[in-house]
Structures are given as structure tokens and as C-alpha cells.
Amino acid sequence: MLEKADISMVYQEYYSMVLMNVIIGFIVSLVSTLLIYLLLPNNITALLVFILTSTVPFFIGIGYLQLPTSKAKTRAKNIDHHLPYVANFINTMSVAGISPSEIFGTLAGIQLYGEVQKEAKKITTEIELMGNDSITALRNAITISPSKKFRDFLQGIIAVLQSGSDLATYFDRCVDQFMFDDLEDRKKNLESLAIMAESFVTTVIAFPLFLVIILSVMGLTSGGISFDFLYIIALFIIPLAYVGFYVMMKSGMGEEI
Questions:
Q1: pLDDT tens digits, one per residue of 154-170
Q2: Three-state SS across 115-160?
Q3: Number of C-alpha atoms within 13 angstroms, CB side, residue 152?
């Protein structure tokens, strides 16, 4: 998973780093809460010492253990987003009679294609520095790529090379399929965006306005009403709703439409 997440560490090194950060988090949280307890000795600060010293290291460890999976998924989304245009670029070069090794060498120098460029760099490094042939380099790239679409794409190239078929024909079919899939994904994203926009307007804009009107009318008719609940809505619930919708947009939409 570290290879798919593009984390340049061996597993022993990464787990050692996780353990070190957990220990540092425990020490920092323990010292900080003990200082607070010494300044304000009461039951609440004593409970705070126990809660923080147990939860902070736990969440640090969980965060680092989930980081490779999260980064791999992010890289896979980025690769899938750029793959239709990468396939079109590769198809154009293939029609000109350029070999796969030269195509990936050129692709490795184009930053426009995001994570696909990094995958192309790995393939080029294996061919030029390690002396592997194109098929071996592509097979190794398949094992460490986080994107299923890209793995299938590379596997198709290997099959065409081994069978002696025409690469340009294969790339042409891939471009059509990837462009169609990309169009369908954009339609789904637009539909999800429309639903989230309606939910946002209803829950974050319309609901607070209606609540203010209702409380104002109740205050006039009943001769006074506590506004504590309104303060909680304004200071906590609405900001949290904004943050929640922002997180949903970033995680659900992925790349820009």
C-alpha cells in the first residue's frame, strides 16, 4: 500500500515513524494536561488528563495507519481523472510510430497530467536505469498503481505487444471508452452537486431564517423567550454545517467538474 500511496518508505521505517509519533503525542498531551491540572486542580481537569492522554495517541496512530489508504485513493482519483487525456496523448504519439518506452519517457516530463506523470516516471526509470524491457516495466507498474483503470490500460498494452497487434487501434478504443466514462462521471457529479446545493440552501440558509422569524413572533406573543437556543444555532450548529458541506464537497466531488 505504501507503493500505491507513493510513500518512499519501507514498512518497518513507516511503522517506526508511526510509533514515534504516537509516543510524542502521548508525552505532549500528558505534559500539557498536567500543567493545566496544576494551574486549575479540579475534577474536570483531572478527567481531561485521562481523556487526552488516551485519545490523542490513539487518533494519531489511527490517522497514520489510514494515511496510505487515503493517499492511494486520492492518487487513484487523480489518475482516473487524467486518464482520458493521457490516453489521447499516447494515441497521438502511437500513430506517429513512437515506441511505448519513448511515449512513457515523454509523458514522464509533462506535469500537466498529475499523478499519471509519476507513474510514467517509474516506468521510464525501470527501462532506462534498471535496464528492464518495456513489458517487465509495465508489469511492475501494474503491481504498484492505485488505479484499476490504469492497471487495466497497462495490461492491455502488454497484451497487444505480446500478440503483435496494432497499438494505435487499441489506444483508439481506449480513448473512446475513457472519454465516455469521463462524461458519465461528470454527469453523476453534476447531479450530486445539485442535490447538495438544494440541501445546503434548505438546511443552512432557509432554516435559520425561518427559525429567527418563529422565535421573534413567539417572543412578541408570549412576552419574552430565551434566546440561548438561537445562540447555539448561530455560533455552533451553522458553522459546523458549513464545515460539513465543505468536507462533503471536497470528498464527494474529487476533481473539479
A1: 999 899 888 887 888 88
A2: HHHHHHHHHHHHHHCCCCCHHHHHHHHHHHCCCHHHHHHHHHHHHH
A3: 10
What is the number of alpha carbons within 13 Å of residue 189 lying toward its C-beta? 16
Quote the cell numbers at residue 220: 412578541
- Residue 196's contacts (CB-CB under 8 Å, 6 or more residues apart) are 245, 248, 249, 252
147 Rama class: left (phi>0) / alpha (psi -120 to 50) / beta: beta
Concatenate the DSSP letters of all residues of 72-123 into one string.
HHHHHHHHHHHHHHHHHHHHHHHHTT--HHHHHHHHTT-GGGTHHHHHHHHH
What confidence tens digit (pLDDT) does each residue in 14-65 have? 889 999 999 998 998 888 888 888 887 877 777 878 888 888 888 888 988 8
Long-range contacts: 118-125, Cβ < 8 Å, 24+? 118/6, 119/79, 119/145, 119/150
241-255: average pLDDT: 71
Higher-confidence position of 79 and 246: 79
**Exposed, middle or buried, 106 (CB in 10 Å: 0-12/13-18/19+)?**
middle
